[in-house]
Structures are given as structure tokens and as C-alpha cells.
Amino acid sequence: MNIKPQDYSIIVVEDESFLSKILAERLNDEGFKKIIVASNGVEALQKIKDDQPDLILLDMILPKMNGFEVLEELKNDDKLKNIPVLILSNLGQDNDIERAKELGADQYIVKSNFSMHKVMASVTEMLEKVAKS
Question: pTM score > 0.85 for this model?
Fold first, then answer.
């Protein structure tokens, strides 16, 4: 890993508290110290606006405002549109993945195919791109 995890902040937007906790703990174990957690789309947008994290881990099926709506809001906001977004979702249909990418998602991992190793590798890869830009 060429990046220093402690220099980056990540928001985990996930309504399943068990998965949210596991992701946050694993990120912490990897050295990330600024981990923000949100359990619905409205809360996520507010925290993203307030904290402007370096990376967003976003579920698509969320209460109050779904992941597609969150993505749309983010990409229409000049201050937030360049924050990379990694989708972690149960929505695995090609049209859902395509729609998320059209709305600006950088990567998409279907939860049924996901391993913590794959998620951490994607997080690192995406933050290395951020570091270079």
C-alpha cells in the first residue's frame, strides 16, 4: 500500500448495522482512523457535505433516500462530485450496475460476491488514484 491510511477519511453508508460495523472495524484495522458511518441516504448526504470524505462506500438499498438518489445529488454538487464512490449492494442486475456507473459510481461490488479482501483492495486502489490526482 503506497498510501498512508491515516491520512484519509471514508464514509460507510450502510443500513445493516452488522455489516456497517464489520466494514468500519476492518477499515480501522487497515489503519484508517477517520471512519464516518451513516445508516440512510439523507444522513449520508449531510455527513458527506459536512466532512467531505476521501472515499464513499455506498449501499444502494437505503431508507429515506436510496443510493441512486444519493449518487445523483453528489454528482450534481461541484464540491462533492469528484469524491470516488465504491458501491456495495445486493442489487446485482446489469441495469442497476449500469445505472450506478452512469450516475458516477467508480466501482460496483455485489454483496453476494464480496469478500472483505476484495473491498479493501478496491478501497486502496481508489485512494491511490486520489493520491495521484
Answer: yes
The CA angle 18-8-39, to the nearest 5 degrees, is 30
For the four alpha carbons of 91, 39, 45 and 51, in that order, the dihedral sign comes to: negative
The structural domains of the chain, ordered by start, are 5-132 (3.40.50.2300)
Contacts of 20 (CB under 8 A, 6+ apart): 12, 14, 37, 39
Cα separations in angstroms, 102 against 52, 55, 63: 22, 18, 22
pLDDT tens-digit profile of 11-53? 999 999 999 999 999 999 999 989 999 999 999 999 999 999 9
